[in-house]
Amino acid sequence: MGQRIKTSQQFNEFINSNAQNPSLANVLSSLRLSCYEAIEGLRNRPLLIYSSKFINALPGTPNNIDISDIDGFTDLVQSIRGKSKSVDVLLHSPGGQPDATERIVHILRNDFEEVHFIVPHSAYSAATMLALSGDSITLHPSATLGPIDPQINGTPARSIKRGFDKVKEIIKTEGPEALPAYIPLIEKYSLDLLEICEDSEKLSKELVSNWITDFMLKGKEKHQGQVKDSVEYFSDYDRHLLHSRPLVINKLKKFDLNIYQSEDPLTELIWEAYVHINGFFGLTAFVKLYENRYGVSWGTQFQQMVIQPPPQGQLQRQA
Fold first, then answer.
1. Are 288 and 259 in contact (CB under 8 A)?
2. 8 Å CB contact between 1 and 38
3. Does residue 139 lie in a domain region?
4. SS (H, E, C) 119-148
């Protein structure tokens, strides 16, 4: 493989010592592709990269799974069409929209009989849903999945429902005179939001139930209770309390799904790929990356403009 950069420290040291190299971007790209090639050599299938910048990302960064990802996944799939019936997807994402996730699952399953996910660091929310559509999930020892309870404008749907339920119970026990104290909550959320919360929870559970049954447990003796228990666990906000609660391998073993922890030499290569991808985000304006060894390498760029106020002495009063 030639030169190897295995850790974030080594990456930063390499950048500092090569800062004046005009071909630095090409060198880094070559190192990333070489790492992908090594993973493919171990796994015997093509590797697709779908990664978002969300570690230390600025507020408002467009890094969620959304409809724009259809273009990226279509390019990735088309570039290897006919090469293999099986594919690996390296996934690093904070999550996003379930409907866009469903489209991505369709794109992958339309071309591949087997889809396997590799998580080097984090796959939360809808990204966990996407991973659970796989035939298997391989987690780096440092990696985690997350709860799949839906969010409504950044607020957990379950907590919105609990808020309304609490108000109803208080009014029921204390009478109408308690209502004024809770009018701000009622005004903040429209009643039809309750329906949206319930539908969103139902959709997340339904999708993941179907995917686990059709793919991860395909060919195995299926027990409906196993699927139900797994989905209830992943979607149980009352148990996890935080939408970003880490669901690491030790918490998931009891469900007997095809979720595994990586072992060397794969472990080292997965982290190496993450170090390069995260470093790429740190050096560029990219916040999403679609990449493989077969000609696809592009993504979404985002830069926030910070407007500085003029010096105080330059302020002028308008007549």
1. no
2. yes
3. yes
4. ECCEECCHHHHHHCCCCEEEECCCCEECCC
Q: What does pTM read for this prediction? A: 0.84
* 259 found inside a domain: yes
Strands (E) located in the chain: 47-52, 86-92, 114-119, 122-123, 136-139, 144-145, 151-152, 155-156, 259-261, 286-291, 297-301
Range of the domain at 12: 8-146+246-314
* C-alpha to C-alpha distance for 287 and 51, rounded to whole angstroms: 8
Provide the number of structural domains found in the chain.
Answer: 1
How many residues are listed for the chain in this entry?
A: 319
Q: What is the pLDDT of residues 234-283, one digit of tens each?
A: 887 667 656 667 899 999 999 999 999 999 999 999 999 999 999 999 99
- Whether 57 is covered by a domain: the verdict is yes
**29 in any annotated domain:** yes
Show the tokens assigned to 59.
């507020």
Residues with Cβ within 8 Å of 129's Cβ and at least 6 positions away in sequence, in order, are: 95, 98, 101, 148, 204, 207, 208, 211
Q: How far apart are CA 204 and CA 212, in angstroms?
A: 12
- Cis, bond preceding 309 (omega within 30 deg of 0): no
Give the phi and the psi of residue 270 in degrees, each rounded to 5. -60, -45
Contact 53, 61 (CB under 8 A): yes
Taking CA atoms, 208 is separated from 52, 85, 95, 265, 294, in Å, by 22, 23, 14, 31, 30
Q: What is the CATH number of the domain that holds 42?
A: 3.90.226
Lowest mean pLDDT segment, chosen from 39-43, 102-106, 132-136, 217-221:
217-221
Helix (H, G, I), strand (E, B) or coil at 219: coil
Considering just the CA atoms, what is the radius of gyration of the chain in Å? 23
